[in-house]
């Protein structure tokens, strides 16, 4: 039985859970664990960490499932990373990283709290309604075992919900006609996306690629001469998020309004604690 939710309730819940998943990619614990495996390049270790659930895949598979990464960057590291460490070893190191990172950011009391156990239970219940078809990155992660420790189970469930929404978001991007760099540039223009410096540094695009995408968006009336979203651009981004919401509604409808509200509350509390503890770079989000 599904339960009617307040508008955007699922999105708000996602926005509370997803960033805590992402602390992995900014964590010094990731460098330590992956250096021990033999990795020396940060791009290689972060690509391996996210793609390992897919198996020993190459650049083509990751370009398709990640959407907004430059294939040239991916081809420099994939499938070569699997010569450094197997996907199984990477997944084990990733989970050790999550354990160390959450303990450092949240503290042992929070990690072992009844609230963390409750959040894990709620998030896992929501994942019961996730679907596999046309969702490769979600489906690959859904094949992994649920960790026993509540804070790791919470992170695992947040990962499933993140990738479920993310896979649907790719379909929405195709529907509204935004290519990889246009998607990034228009998101940055909302003020809620990564700054251009972080986008270019992590996704492998050059400034010329960004400028060309911006010019295409201007030509379509999505950005104005100053690089800001036009009225039509704002409407397009709203359409994109609403379509993503519809494709991602099932987990939150399954959990129900009260469960979604409680999970959002708990997730925001954990996220605020992590942010105050320095989980994210200060210049990560912004238009400049």
Structure description:
With 288 residues, this protein is mostly helical. Helix content is 69%, strand content 0%. The chain contains 17 helices and no strands. Helix 4 packs across helix 5 (71-77) and helix 9 (114-127) packs parallel to helix 11 (150-176).
Low-confidence runs: none
Beta-strand proportion: under 5%
Roughly how much helix do the residues carry, as a percent range? 55-70%
Termini gap: 46 Å
Structural class: mainly alpha
What is the radius of gyration?
19 Å
Number of helical elements? 17
Shape: globular
Q: Provide mean pLDDT, rounded.
A: 96
Which H/E pattern describes the elements? HHHHHHHHHHHHHHHHH
Instruction: Give a count of the beta strands, DSSP E runs of length 2 or more.
Output: 0
Sheet having the most strands: none
List keywords for this structure.
mainly alpha; 288 residues; globular
Topology:
Layout (H helix, E strand, L loop, with lengths): L8 H14 L5 H10 L4 H10 L7 H8 L4 H7 L3 H4 L2 H20 L1 H4 L2 H14 L8 H7 L7 H27 L3 H10 L6 H8 L3 H13 L11 H17 L1 H7 L1 H20 L12
In short:
This protein has helices at residues 9-22, 28-37, 42-51, 59-66, 71-77, 81-84, 87-106, 108-111, 114-127, 136-142, 150-176, 180-189, 196-203, 207-219, 231-247, 249-255, 257-276. The protein is mainly α and 288 residues long. It is globular.
